[in-house]
Design goal:
The complex is a heterodimer of chains A (about 140) and B (about 190).
Chain A (H helix, E strand, L loop, with lengths): L4 H23 L8 H19 L1 H7 L2 H24 L14 H38 L1
Helix pairs in contact in A: 1-2, 2-3, 2-5, 4-5
Chain B lengths: L5 H19 L3 H21 L3 H25 L13 H18 L17 H11 L5 H9 L1 H39 L3
Helix pairs in contact in B: 1-2, 2-3, 6-7
Chain lengths: ~140, ~190
């Protein structure tokens, strides 16, 4: 795995672009195709590519499993938190109109936060599942 | 079928060929690779049908992550299929043929592809198309439906993904936790 020089050099250039593209897909979902699910999967794929080429141990040092597990729950909490916040502001669960003075701004803010929650959870889940699979192979061998 | 553009026919033909090849293959590594190509072709098909968001997800999840997870599974198990029995059986064949026939028969009742009078285009879709600009103010109607109109469903989907992660960690990740516990316990006895 560690001897693929061309792959390593290429991926060093590619992985930041992949992650930047994931962020673009995440925050441009209101205007173009994309959203939390797609962005999360692309970001997760970036992390998995890193683990595939540079090995599991360096990848686990960069993306700590504990942080990833926290992010898995944090994404769902963010989504649910937006729902609870809308109730506290006097609306229905996940009725973003009440989040800002202008209903459209509220909708924009709500969709942004909710998609961010989805993206966080999906990215962290993809990476966690892969690291768990790969890590099991290492410890058993 | 004649009103379908040629690209649809080409893509559908490739899909069918790849599906049959995946069933026939004994080498699971090649089957996983073909499944990735299958997903990529599906994504192309969705793109041709103007469902860009779905195509995006299919390409990222189906061709990307699924393939990697399948390969990770093959690394843990065996990449060669070992069928338990190769015997030809009549009853399962009849059951499959009957089910397949019923499904094909059901498609005769479905509206034609792209039919504007199909029920799906007269339920909530027109409401979303007409009111998204006033209600939500977001240019991408798919995002508006997904995150706002159908916020409950997306919340449920996110919870499903969380549950999947918890399941994988409970089934596979528990091992690492146990190993870490085993490693530290004798280490303390050795005076580490």
């Amino acid at each position: 795995m560690t001897s693929h020089v061309i792959l390593r050099v290429l991926l060093k250039l590619l992985i930041p672009v992949i992650m930047l593209f994931a962020l673009y897909v995440q925050f441009h979902g209101d205007y173009g195709p994309g959203g939390g699910f797609q962005a999360g999967v692309i970001f997760g794929a970036g992390m998995i590519l890193y683990a595939l080429i540079f090995g599991l141990e360096p990848a686990l040092r960069v993306f700590s499993p504990n942080v990833l597990r926290t992010l898995v729950a944090a994404g769902v909490m963010l989504y649910g938190g937006v729902g609870v916040a809308t109730i506290l502001f006097g609306g229905n669960f996940l009725d973003y109109d009440v989040l800002a003075h202008d209903p459209h701004h509220g909708q924009h803010l709500g969709i942004l936060l909710v998609e961010l929650g989805v993206g966080l959870t999906v990215a962290a889940v993809m990476a966690t599942i892969f690291f768990t699979f790969a890590g099991r192979g290492r410890t058993d061998a | 079928m004649s009103d379908l553009p040629g690209i649809h026919l080409v893509l559908f033909t490739f899909l069918a060929v790849i599906a049959i090849a995946v069933i026939r293959l004994k080498d699971l590594f090649a089957a996983v690779m073909l499944m990735g190509i299958f997903s990529l072709l599906s994504a192309s098909l969705f793109t041709v049908m103007d469902a860009v968001d779905v195509a995006f997800t299919e390409a990222a999840v189906g061709a990307g992550i699924s393939t990697i997870l399948m390969l990770a599974t093959l690394a843990l198990t065996d990449s060669e299929e070992h069928p338990a029995h190769n015997r030809f059986r009549v009853v399962p064949l009849l059951a499959v043929l009957a089910t397949g026939g019923a499904l094909v028969y059901a498609t005769f009742d479905m509206p034609r592809y792209g039919d504007p009078s199909a029920p799906i285009h007269h339920y909530v879709a027109p409401h979303y198309l007409e009111h998204t600009d006033d209600d939500i103010g977001v240019p991408n109607i798919v995002t508006a439906v997904l995150a706002s109109y159908r916020g409950y469903d997306t919340w449920g989907e996110t919870t499903v993904i969380l549950t999947a992660c918890v399941g994988v960690l409970l089934l596979l990740g528990g091992h690492a936790v146990v190993e870490r516990f085993r490693r530290t316990t004798p280490g303390q006895e050795d005076g580490e």
